[in-house]
């Protein structure tokens, strides 16, 4: 299977085929609204605005598995992100990224880029960078801020 074979749910519960993102550079992030890393939303939005017209997309997957830091509904999370950080990139339904109920997309991502990291996602704001061909080219720890990824995104565009 390739990345483009997966279907996910948007924040309203509608099916979205990742085939819709074929030919684009993607940054896939598991997020939370009450985390110490939540201010990264600002950097993500800035990066999105900088590169969206060049074929860059951020796919935001809220996750409540780490410290109960995304307890709200999809709608509450979207309102928070839009109101506080002006987020305009695509937000999806809340998912699990580890364990028995983990979303198949994250099973795939972790298989592609386990590397130095353990198989499991350690915390909110783990990031996967995907090239225009759907290849997962990098995995970034939550402590790696969007500005540190900017050059890698630019190179892929």
Describe this structure as you would to a colleague.
This protein has one domain: Glutaredoxin. It starts with 6 loop residues before the first strand and ends with a helix. The longest helix has 12 residues. The protein is an alpha/beta fold. It has a 5-stranded mixed sheet. A two-stranded antiparallel ribbon has the order 1-2.
Offer a few descriptive terms:
157 residues; alpha/beta; Glutaredoxin; 4 helices
Summarize the structure.
By secondary structure, this protein is α/β, with parallel strands linked by helices.
Tell me the layout of helices and strands:
Elements: E1 7-9, E2 15-17, E3 25-31, H1 40-51, E4 56-62, H2 74-85, E5 90-91, H3 104-112, E6 127-130, E7 136-140, H4 146-156
Parallel strand pairs: 3-4, 4-5
Antiparallel strand pairs: 1-2, 3-6, 6-7
Helix pairs in contact: 1-4
- What's the CATH topology label? Glutaredoxin
What is the CATH homology-level superfamily? Answer: Glutaredoxin
Rg over CA atoms, rounded to whole Å, is 14 Å
In terms of DSSP E residues, the strand content is 15-25%
CATH architecture: 3-Layer(aba) Sandwich
Secondary structure: helix percent: 25-40%
Q: Class in CATH?
A: Alpha Beta
How many domains in all?
Answer: 1
The overall pLDDT average reads 93
Main sheet: strand order: 5-4-3-6-7
Question: Counting H and I runs of at least 4 residues, what is the number of helices?
Answer: 4
Secondary structure class reads alpha/beta
